Task: structure prediction
Amino acid sequence: MRPGKIYLIFLLVFMLLQSAVAQPPLSNLRKKWIPVTDSSFVIDSFSIAPNTFTMQGAPDANYKLDEIDAKFTWIVKPDADSVFITYRVFPARLNRKVYKYNYDSIRFNFLAEKPTRVRASLSSSNA
Result:
């Protein structure tokens, strides 16, 4: 084989492998170990799907979960140093602020321009 073909094949294989790594995960299932050190923290950047959060090592009465903000708060901390959680997420945050326009960048686009004035002539040029 010519060196140019080998280089081209190597480049093609490298590009295919790079695109495979860059793909988002296919599942919305998340599994994590969380430390028991902080009293409240955000679990994920996405909103958690209702009734999908499970925790091993602590009963449901020992914590409070805000599923929309994905904020976790301990009511009673367990004796373990970390616990294993499993949950599913929505593909986006449900309470995210959405702006159609940034008002500061478009506020001068709608100012009325000065009207053009046409002087009326006394003589008629159509006659």
